Amino acid sequence: MLPGEILFGFIGLVVVITAVGMVISRNAIYSALFLVSNFTTVALLYLILGAPFIAVVQISVYAGSIMVLFLFVIMLLGAERLAAKEKLQGQRLLAVILGVVFLVELGLFGVWKAGYMTTPVPPAAATAGAPEAVGMALFTQYALPFEVTGFILLVATVGAILLTRGDKPASKDLITAVSEKEG
Amino acid sequence: MLLSETLQNPAVSLVPWVVFLPLIGLVINLVLGQRLGEKFVGAVASLAALAAFGVAVVLAVTLAGEPGVGKFHLLDWIQVGGLNLGWDFRVDTLSVTMMLVVAGVGSLIHIYATAYMHSDVRHNGDPSRYRRFFVYFNLFILAMMILVSADSYLMLFVGWEGVGLCSYLLIGFWFEKGADGTANAKAAKKAFVVNRVGDFGLLLAMFLLFWNFKSLSFDEIFAQAPALAQAAPGVVLAVTLFMLLGVAGKSAQLPLFVWLPDAMAGPTPVSALIHAATMVTAGVYLVARSSPLYLEVPAAQQAVMWVGALTALFAATIAVAQNDIKKVLAYSTISQLGFMVAAVGMTAYVAGMFHLITHAFFKALLFLSAGSVILGLEHGHAHSHNGHNGHEEDHFDPQDMRNMGGLQGRMKTTFWVYLIGALALAGIAPLSGFFSKDEILAAALHTSPAIFALLIAAAFLTAFYMGRQVFLVFFGRPRSTAAEHAVESPALITVPLILLALLSALGGALNLPKIYTLEHWLEHSLQHSLVVEFNLTVAVGSVLLALTAIALAWWLYGKRQMRASDPDPLAAPLGGLFRALQNKWWVDELYQAVIVRPYHALASWLSGPVDSTGIDGIANGLGQLTHWAAGSLRRIQTGYVRTYVLVVLFGVVLMLAFLAFN
Amino acid sequence: MPLGYYLALSAVMFVIGIVGVLVRRNALIVFMSLELMFNAANLLFVTFAAYYGTIIGQISVFFVMTVAAAEVAVGLALMVAIFRTKHSIDVDQMSSLKG
Amino acid sequence: MTMVLNPILLMTFFPLVGAAVILFFKSEQKSAIRWTALITSLVTFGLSLWVLAAYGRQDVGIHRLWFRIAGLPIHFHMAVDGLNILMVLLTTFLTPLAVLSTWKAVEERVKGFMIFFLLLEVGMLGVFLALDLVLFYIFWEFTLIPMYFLIGLWGGERRIYAAVKFFLFTMAGSVIMLLAILYLGWNAKTFDLPALLAARDSFAAAQIPLFAAFALAFAIKVPMWPLHTWLPDAHVEAPTAGSVILAGVLLKMGAYGFLRFNLLLFPQASLQLAPWMAGLAVIGILYGAAVAYTQKDVKKLVAYSSVSHLGFVMLGIFALNAEGLSGAILQMVNHGLSTGALFLMVGFLYERRHTRLMESFGGLWKSVPVLAALALIVSLSSMGLPGLNGFVGEFTILTGAFGSAALGSPWFAGLSTLGVILAAVYLLHMMEKVFLGPITHAENRSLPDLSPRELAVILPLLVVIFWIGLYPKPFFGLIEPGVAQILAAVQSAALALH
């Protein structure tokens, strides 16, 4: 066993455990925390794969802000737990069986049969995933999509505000007018 | 016609005016009549009819000068494919004769109606309809003129349907009156629908004509008729028989006569003009006009002849047992039309036309006099009820002969003209009816003894029921207070009556034996008419027979005094037969049971079970099926997102497996 | 190190995410499971970016993250809105579209 | 001729201008909206007269490539010819009258009503003028939408049912027609009608199924028996103006489709199937007449009479000779005028009494003589009284069908002629129940007679009714080239068959 493989095995184990933990935790807060750990661990993998910029973004955006948002909402709603009464009997079993079948299919045909078990990942070039390189690509070649994502975020912000406003007394501003029309 | 030279006289171009003049009259009345009052309306309408008569006279004089066929093309009409039809008028002796009758008798009746309708609209409580009456009346003259002046079957058909429309309008003139308030409206509808059955025949005849002759104009068809009769006799037979159906409808022959008695719901001038003198004779005119076709197929002649003769007798029997003064005349009209149809069936076209003319005179006279009687009775009724129960609804029927009697003293003029008309109708020499009927009888004797027997029986019954009518109405003592107080009608009514009486008396002069004026006049149009020499035996015999019948009528009805409630003297001896006669042989009931009710049932069945439940049911059933299928399928939509995702995953797994194994 | 390891890990993460979506009723955890699946996909992108030595995979991840952020914002807002009316975030309660 | 000044284009899309102007009014400005709609439709009528004047000149149509789907060219091809000129005139003539008839009848949501109405006019004109199958199909489907709303929003009690039924029936047929259109396009590599006619051989093998596919769509629209059941419901529920346009123009789209597409594209199939189609037509004539007779609702009676009348049209079309075809086209116009006028009359009655049941009327001639007299004239025209328009059409149709070589038997015409009797039966039945007899309901005693506005709606119709009845020559003249085109196609097909 090579040290790299040991490291990968360790990281992979953590990834899987945290993922499973996220899914099976009864308490939503635990789930969120498991997911944060999961994201952080995956960020390590990005580092290994020579993508430091993405790794940082992963931690700051995903593990940071998004998960904070999750936690915030969980707290806000006080919805850590649900009244337990499963309506869909057999759903759990079926889901697991199908999941396993799916995994086998993916592993068998997507990974093993495709020959990826024998092709190594080439060592990353030092500058390949560096922030400058990503930045250059983003602001030159992908400038337009980049701007579009900005717009998407704007729209999402507006949408989120509109959705959470609730049924306030009518005021004269645009959003109220729009929401009334749609209502 | 076939051999006649074309008439180039400029007078021919006057012929559209026989149509335009009534049109002008009716438009003036329509637009201005309301404002200008009754006198104006009556005058305009009568003048329009008179002017048309004037045109007809000019045409007649022209034709007398140079016999021939004049044609006038007014306007193109339907020109498509092989159809090439125009508004073409035809001036020949036959059409001009008809024009003279229509406009002449029509004018007299117009004048009569100006007075008659004046009191009729008041009696019926709606004076505003005075104008409407004359608009319809002029419209009728217009349509009838189109009918008789047409140069093609299609244009004839225009007039044919047009007069039917006028008949409808005028029968339903008092559309809210009659039994239950609906009887008049129903009678109008019946007349139109029954006529439509006849028109159906005429339409089919025209289709056959068109596809076999490639034309609908008289000359072209008649020119080819002999050739086609050689090549395809069946076609000509079919054409003539379909035409006979049209004739039966319009001229109220068996089996389509049922509408005419009901048509008496119209005001009396209508009965006189449309349902006695002119419109109903259109069928006779049609057969005479189509004589070149009928001459080719003896079988069709036979059919026409038998229909006519049977109708003559059949209707005469019914007339014997009727109590309504106008109903008697109506059945008499049917019967006399039967005489004419039988005559034209025997190819005695001139005799038929002759009887048509004289019948127009005396039957118009009889109807108008009957109208005068009715008016007199209405006045008498109003007079006798003045002061007491004037507003009370009573069921006095001024047309029921049982309420009359003894009118000869109170209505002298009416009595005398009525008597002349009745005698003319009964065929007493030397009145007009004698000559014309005699020609038909002579021709019948010449053609077929069976027909002769039918017709002579009908003639006997004719004299009998006219005798019965005259005795019931004018002789004896009044059988009601109304009859006691009846008053003579004003001059505007009696003057046309006197004129018509003169015509009825002297009309025979048109075609006196040995001289045959009408014969020579019409032979330009009707070359192959059967002419039978005056037969003295028949003439004397028929007069004697008629006198016997009148004597019998006197013995039954005139000899002793009757009361209004007495049963008819014939009821006891004839028993069930009399009831059958009184109920018109239950023909109406028969049609009701065989045609009307089954059609109604069929239509209800079609619209109910078939349309709503059946066809629409299938359509809606398809909708229901979709609805049901969707209802079953929608259960798949559990509403649980997780289930959907599971299904999606299942699909993904399957697809992956599919891709992998391929 | 073989490429397959990363791919296998990504597949495992993805399937865990799927199973999470399928078995959990808490809408927030369902949501988190979705995020896990995004991550699995992102890992794949980065792996292949390294494999092919190109930057485009990383750029894609960047965009995925942005969109995911937007989606989370709207999604959580929806969650709040639904909670207001239904007083629950049980996905099985949200079955108004039941046929 | 430039694009803008093309009379066809201008006429077809001018109602859009009016609709756009109406958009700017407030909903409460009802009379302004009404006047705008009326003036728009009148101008459109004027433009259609311009088209009529330009008719026959080569450059009057518009024909250019529009776009391509999967490499197949779709042309924007509109032109007038003998088959559609009368339909166009009928449309532009009836629309202003229908608009004028809504003055009092439509009080709610006038704005939407008028906009839909003008949109409907655009659709109808497009259907008649389009000479590219795809363009035709677009217009064909487009007419559904405004009509759906006209029935569904301004209709009677069961308007939703009727609107949905109308929509589904028509849709079901046209979907199958779309398949046939696509098949034609793929095989002939064009959707343009003249090009398709030139390439008839490319789909000669499938003529009969293609004919059936087109025929289904058109037969539903006509409607032919037994696909007619949507019509009474739609008519009864539709507002008066909607009924007028529905009967006057929309039904004609079906018959027109037969003429334009079935006969021209599939002449052989038309010849082979003519007796079957004529058989259905005859059934329709008699059946419609019988069912009309039993109706209690006047509007339903008129609706079923449409089934009967359109049967005559179909009979004429499948007589496949000059008389039958010309008569059929003229009868399409006649039916639009007469039945349109009848619906207007029923509408007038409804506005006065808010009922259409015959039993609530009776004796109306006494209280509304002008209305009654005009109703009588219109009924007479509808039952084919000579001198009025209906007769000219019916007579030519029946004459054509009687001697038709394609039908091969006079029985079709013979039985149909019975319809002439039955028409008198049901129409006079209606006259008797509504206008004649005594007044049985007190509220009928003092009804107002026709107002000048209502007269202005009816009188133009009457003028044309008399005109066609007395002097139809100009109309036949307009039709003739179209009929000649069909006859040429049919004759060559007949030669090919034998």
UniProtKB/TrEMBL annotation, chain A:
Enzyme Commission number(s) from the entry: 7.1.1.-
Transmembrane segments: 6-25, 32-55, 61-79, 91-112, 142-163
Keyword tRNA-binding found: no
Assigned GO CC terms: plasma membrane
Localisation: Cell membrane
Class of the enzyme per the UniProt entry, highest EC level: translocase
Alphabetized UniProt keyword annotations: Cell membrane, Membrane, NAD, Quinone, Transmembrane, Transmembrane helix
One MF annotation (Gene Ontology) recorded for this entry: NADH dehydrogenase (ubiquinone) activity
Membrane topology, from the record: Multi-pass membrane protein
Catalytic activity: a quinone + NADH + 5 H(+)(in) = a quinol + NAD(+) + 4 H(+)(out)
Entry keyword annotation includes Transmembrane: yes
Similarity comment: family membership: Belongs to the complex I subunit 6 family.
PANTHER family: NADH-QUINONE OXIDOREDUCTASE SUBUNIT J (PTHR33269:SF19), NADH-UBIQUINONE OXIDOREDUCTASE CHAIN 6 (PTHR33269)
Functional description taken from the UniProt entry: NDH-1 shuttles electrons from NADH, via FMN and iron-sulfur (Fe-S) centers, to quinones in the respiratory chain. Couples the redox reaction to proton translocation (for every two electrons transferred, four hydrogen ions are translocated across the cytoplasmic membrane), and thus conserves the redox energy in a proton gradient.
Descriptive protein name: NADH-quinone oxidoreductase subunit J
Automatic annotation (TrEMBL), chain B:
GO cellular component: endomembrane system; membrane
Domain NADH:quinone oxidoreductase/Mrp antiporter transmembrane stretches: 150-462
InterPro entries: NADHpl_OxRdtase_5_subgr, ND/Mrp_TM, NU5C-like, Proton_antipo_N
Span of domain NADH-Ubiquinone oxidoreductase (complex I) chain 5 N-terminal: 77-134
Protein's name according to its UniProt entry: NADH-quinone oxidoreductase subunit L
One GO MF term attached to the UniProt entry: NADH dehydrogenase (ubiquinone) activity
GO biological process: ATP synthesis coupled electron transport; electron transport coupled proton transport
Residues annotated as transmembrane: 12-32, 44-65, 93-113, 133-150, 156-175, 196-213, 225-249, 270-288, 303-321, 328-350, 356-377, 415-435, 441-466, 487-510, 530-557, 643-661
Keyword vocabulary terms for this entry: Membrane, Transmembrane, Transmembrane helix
A Pfam family it matches: Proton_antipo_M
Membrane-topology descriptor: Multi-pass membrane protein
Compartments, as annotated in UniProt: Endomembrane system; Membrane
Automatic annotation (TrEMBL), chain C:
Pfam family, one: Oxidored_q2
Predominant subcellular localization, coarse grouping: membrane
Reactions performed catalytically: a quinone + NADH + 5 H(+)(in) = a quinol + NAD(+) + 4 H(+)(out)
Keyword DNA-binding attached: no
InterPro entries with a match to the protein in the record: NADH_UbQ_OxRdtase_chain4L/K, NUOK/Mnh_C1-like
Top-level EC class as recorded in UniProt: translocase
GO biological process: ATP synthesis coupled electron transport
Record field: transmembrane: 6-24, 36-53, 59-83
Cell compartments where the protein resides: Cell membrane; Membrane
Topology versus the membrane: Multi-pass membrane protein
An annotated GO cellular component: NADH dehydrogenase complex
Gene3D superfamilies noted in UniProt: 1.10.287.3510
EC number, as in UniProt: 7.1.1.-
Domain of life, per lineage: Bacteria
Subunit description: NDH-1 is composed of 14 different subunits. Subunits NuoA, H, J, K, L, M, N constitute the membrane sector of the complex.
Role description: NDH-1 shuttles electrons from NADH, via FMN and iron-sulfur (Fe-S) centers, to quinones in the respiratory chain. The immediate electron acceptor for the enzyme in this species is believed to be ubiquinone. Couples the redox reaction to proton translocation (for every two electrons transferred, four hydrogen ions are translocated across the cytoplasmic membrane), and thus conserves the redox energy in a proton gradient.
Protein name, per record: NADH-quinone oxidoreductase subunit K
Native source organism of the sequence: Levilinea saccharolytica
